[in-house]
Write a structure and sequence with these properties.
The protein is of the alpha/beta class and 627 residues long. The protein folds into four domains: 82 residues, Arginyl tRNA synthetase N-terminal domain (Gyrase A, domain 2); 294 residues, HUPs (Rossmann fold, 3-Layer(aba) Sandwich), CATH 3.40.50; 90 residues, no CATH class; 114 residues, Orthogonal Bundle (Isoleucyl-tRNA Synthetase, Domain 1), CATH 1.10.730. The chain is built from 21 helices and 17 strands. The strands form four sheets. Strands 12-10-11-6-5-4-13-14 form an eight-stranded mixed β-sheet, sandwiched between helices. A three-stranded antiparallel β-sheet has the order 1-3-2. A three-stranded antiparallel β-sheet has the order 7-8-9. A hairpin with a 3-residue loop joins strand 2 and strand 3. The radius of gyration is 28 Å and the shape is globular. It binds one RNA strand of 78 nucleotides through helix 2, helix 12, helix 13, helix 15 and helix 18.
Length: 627
RNA sequence: GGGCCCGUAGCUCAGCAUGGAUAGAGCGCCGGCCUUCUAAGCCGGAGGUCGCGGGUUCGAGUCCCGCCGGGCCCGCCA
């Protein structure tokens, strides 16, 4: 496939010259060609020769390829392979045309492999803030990449409807008698998070006795026959329905909503507990700080052993998050025979059904045994995730199948924190906190972005109907936020700055969207002018034409690497690179008035649209034909 | 104290997985380009001891060790 074909050719030329298994890499600059090998350096080390002389000798021995136009030795000792621009661009354009946006960049790499991606997993007691949005964006993009590379992907959202956070809002409703209806014009999830949860947290902090009641409530929520259980379900379902509206707006889709409470209710936990007991992995603490608790013995773990054993069952008999997560992990991995039942909850925007666990009236949920379970969870949960992985390995489950996709949190820049009325220590970022009400909600940020985008759209299209302005500015807002959050690699803390996220120029989602609008306009004008696309170059290529073709040809390899390394950033960088080269091409190479160049350039524009659509689909930036 | 992550231009970030050829963008700043396919764009300029110190190597921003600075975890929270 495109650039890969060129690599294969370079390999073939080298092996024909007697050099087998030589490493071929992508050069960081086009002046060094489309492929290179530092092989002469290795050879020189072995034989003590001069790398450059060796490179020259090897290069002169190499034959011609079909797509490789020339091979050159370059100081201090590389061998560079240069594509034959004309042949290679025709080949690339034909490939792109043949495969289309769906197929281009895809592969069958993951054929026959099932991957389960768990993301979102927000307590159903609040609206999503931008920290949650990062989780959704990462998980959703990973799922898209896996699907593109031929995997069967199932997306799970673990609905954390047990534990203290859930108990907090129930406490607010049942004991502090806060109204169970949101004020008019306010969404229920926002009301729960912004008002109930924050207020209850404030009161608990002020009144220690409430802490006891909170703990008791958390336990009663686990009892399916209790009134509190019913209330928790009611509230959780209502909030969840609201949260999913946000998730869809962020571009996500789900196959299964798994209620955390069902881990206990379904008997999955009980069965897991017995298994752990049987295998001697857990023990009942008779004395010490953990007296009365069931714990995992971590004494033989290389690092966790220093931090004491992990509690799975509290002294009051209720489970901890880690306990539930171990049971859930076993089920996700297809290593538990406990039947989980569910029913259809609704449909995603793409019309695929969403199932939700339901122990009362559902039918059995069956997932194929996955090759990998990827859990997108913040880095602060590294320890508990490692405990889960460790317990799995002690149960004889291959720990490599259970992957914690960790990411650093989103903090607020001092300027943005000030907008929330917070004092900040000189120049320091501020941690978000749902409990203390310090956060930007995903929807409010999207709304602000949308307002800004709408202003710009109206400037350019004063006669567009409001509906159209709304639709386009929404797409711009979605692209802008998704890009700005995904721009940072997962292991880096995102310092969220509202003004920075609101930019529509430069290194942003809208920059890429804009190039698509420009190319669609060319298509339209070309149609009117009766120009027909031809992938055969009209003569020697202009460097802008070549650079655009070249970046298009690299896309499949970039996608493949992203799927392998789970690094999303390189895909984002590449999408932007294609856009930059398109803009340069756009400035220098007229299509409509391109004369004899017009048919080839039109084919190139088409190829750009196809390739960039493919990339944007993966990143989750909406494609606009006009903006 | 122990463990994990981060430290590259004034700011926000690429590059590190697989060491290699002059360290790249964007924002901001300075200066140009709209009778020509949407200027949400393009071109040019200024701006860098790649946190510090060692080590490995023909070669280190990239690998190893130490230190410094920032974040997170070490809860009968999740």
């Amino acid at each position: 496939m495109t650039i890969k074909r060129l690599f294969e050719e370079a390999e073939r030329l080298l092996s024909e010259a007697g050099l087998k298994g030589v490493k071929i890499s992508s050069p960081r600059s086009p002046e060094f060609g489309e492929a290179y090998t530092p092989y002469p350096f290795e050879e020189a080390r072995r034989s003590g020769g001069n790398p450059l002389e060796l490179a020259e000798k090897i290069a002169s021995r190499l034959g011609r390829g079909e797509l490789i136009g020339r091979v050159e030795a370059a100081p201090p000792g590389y061998i560079n392979f240069y594509a034959d621009w004309k042949k290679f661009s025709e080949y690339t354009l034909r490939e792109v045309m043949r495969l289309g946006a769906r197929g281009y960049g895809g592969s069958s790499e993951g054929e026959g492999k099932v991957i389960l991606v768990e993301h979102t997993s927000v307590n159903p007691n609040k609206a999503l803030h931008i920290g949650h949005a990062r989780n959704v964006y990462l998980g959703d993009t990973l799922a898209r990449i896996f699907a593109k590379t031929g995997h069967r992907v199932y997306v799970l959202n673990y609905v954390d409807d047990s534990g203290a956070q859930m108990a907090s809002v129930i406490l607010g409703f049942l004991e502090l008698k806060m109204p169970m209806e949101a004020p008019t014009g306010v969404r229920f999830d926002e009301y729960c998070g912004d008002q109930v949860y924050v207020e209850v947290s404030r009161r608990v902090e002020a009144d220690r006795s409430l802490e006891e009641r909170l703990r008791a409530l958390a336990k009663r929520i686990e009892d399916r026959s209790s009134e509190e259980f019913r209330y928790a379900r009611l509230v959780a379902d209502k909030v969840l329905a609201n949260q999913l509206l946000t998730c869809w707006r962020l571009g996500a889709r789900y196959d299964l909503l798994f209620r955390e409470s069902d881990v206990v209710v379904s008997g999955l936990w009980a069965k897991t507990f017995n298994l752990l007991l049987e295998k001697g992995i857990i023990y009942l603490a008779r004395e010490g700080a953990n007296r009365g608790c069931w714990c995992v013995d971590l004494s033989s773990h290389p690092t966790l052993s220093k931090e004491g054993d992990e509690i799975l069952v509290k002294s009051d008999g209720s489970t901890t998050y880690v306990a539930r997560d171990i049971a859930f992990a076993l089920w996700k991995l297809g290593e538990s025979d406990v039947k989980i039942t569910g029913k259809v909850w609704g449909r995603n925007l793409d019309n695929t059904p969403i199932t939700i666990t339901d122990t009362e009236s559902g039918s059995p949920i069956t997932l194929p045994k996955p090759h990998m379970v990827l859990t997108v969870v913040g880095s602060e949960q590294r320890r508990p995730q490692e405990v889960v992985r460790y317990v799995l390995s002690r149960l004889g489950v291959d720990g490599g199948r259970y992957v914690h996709y960790s990411y650093e949190r989103v903090s607020l820049s001092p300027e943005s924190a000030r907008r929330l009325g917070l004092e900040t220590a000189e120049g320091k970022a501020v941690q978000m906190s749902g409990r203390r009400g310090i956060y930007f909600k995903a929807d409010e940020v999207l709304d602000e972005l949308k307002r800004l985008a709408a202003e710009e759209v109206r400037k350019r299209h004063p006669y567009w109907p409001g509906e159209r302005v709304d639709e386009v500015s929404e797409a711009i807002a979605r692209g802008a936020l998704r890009y700005s959050i995904l721009k940072s690699e997962a292991e880096k803390t995102v310092i969220f700055d509202l003004r920075e996220a609101m930019r529509l120029e430069g290194d942003t989602g809208p920059y890429i969207q804009y190039t698509m609008a420009r190319s669609y306009r060319i298509l339209e004008k070309a149609r009117d002018a009766g120009i027909e696309a031809k992938p055969t170059p009209y003569g020697d290529l202009a460097s802008e034409e070549w650079m655009l073709t070249r970046s298009i040809s690299f896309l499949p390899q970039v996608i493949e690497t992203s799927a392998k390394t789970l690094r999303l950033r390189q895909l984002i960088t590449h999408s932007r690179e294609m856009a930059v080269h398109f803009n340069e091409f756009y400035e220098k190479c007229p299509v409509i008035d391109g004369g004899e160049a017009a048919p080839f350039r039109l084919a190139l524009v088409q190829a750009y649209i196809t390739a960039q659509s493919s990339a944007m689909e993966l990143i989750g930036i909406p494609v606009l034909q006009e903006m």
